[in-house]
Amino acid sequence: MKAYKYLISFLILTISSQTFAQSNPAGVPAKEALQRLIDGNLRFVQGKSQRPNQSIDRLKEVSKKQNPFATIVGCSDSRVPNEIVFDQGLGDLFILRTAGQVSTYASWGSIEFSVAALGVNLIVVLGHSSCGAVNAACKADDVPGHIITLTNAIKPAAEKVKHMDGDFLDNAVKANVAFQVMSLRKLDPIISKQYNKGQLQIVGAVYDLETGKVNFLSEEYIASITK
Ligand SMILES: [Zn+2]
């Protein structure tokens, strides 16, 4: 226990003295960051991707310091590579990907790091159509191994939409994103504080595997499905 406390103190000291010294509180404002993502996705959907910031010069530039303008909490699914679908490049996006974009402690710490140390002002929770993890949560009671961590986290959203009109999986994918957005907004101590100050925006979106389009969820939908 004592050793554990020393380790925590060491980590806090290390993080405050080194990493946070590079902190960039004046990161790209949330509204501008969101527009960059919307514009990038539009280019991708239209087959007009510019593949920005992927040159050797950019590689050298970001090797010194990273300054991502958004954090994406997305699914591990191989068909949703974030830099490609948002048409971004090296050093642009801070990305966490787990199946069903389920977050637990390590993810939360990483998200906090992006906000507190890197000055990110926009977090996007990005689900996608036909998500296998959400499908498993909708259908199977028994899943092997640690996959249960994912399905257990997604089940409340699936339960919520079980009797709704429309496609069960589509509804569950959307609801899961909305639930995750709300959880992040309440995540103490760093994220909730920045969100309540209005400094940080946390939005939800669903990527369509067939069209490549990222559809952002409305605040009305998020509020109604999570109440
Ligand atoms: Zn998925």
Write a structural description:
The protein is an alpha/beta fold and 227 residues long. The chain has a single domain, classed as Carbonic anhydrase (Beta-carbonic Anhydrase, Chain A, 3-Layer(aba) Sandwich), CATH 3.40.1050.10. The protein has ten helices and five strands; from the N terminus they run H-H-H-E-H-E-H-E-H-H-H-H-E-E-H. 37% of the residues are buried. The site of zinc ion (ZN) has 8 residues, from helix 6.
What small molecules accompany the polymer chains? zinc ion
Q: Residue-averaged pLDDT, rounded?
A: 92
Number of helices: 10
Biggest beta-sheet profile: 5 strands, mixed
Judged by helices, strands and strand pairing, the structural class is alpha/beta
- CATH top level label: Alpha Beta
Key attributes of the depicted protein:
227 residues, alpha/beta, Beta-carbonic Anhydrase, Chain A, five-stranded mixed sheet, 10 helices, 51% helix, binds zinc ion
Gist of the model:
The protein is α/β, with parallel strands linked by helices. It has a single domain (24-226), classed as Beta-carbonic Anhydrase, Chain A. Helices cover 51% and strands 12% of the residues.
Secondary structure topology:
Blueprint: H1 2-19, H2 30-45, H3 56-64, E1 70-74, H4 82-85, E2 93-97, H5 105-116, E3 122-128, H6 132-139, H7 147-161, H8 168-185, H9 190-197, E4 201-207, E5 214-216, H10 219-226
Parallel strand pairs: 1-2, 1-3, 3-4
Antiparallel strand pairs: 4-5
Bound molecules: zinc ion.
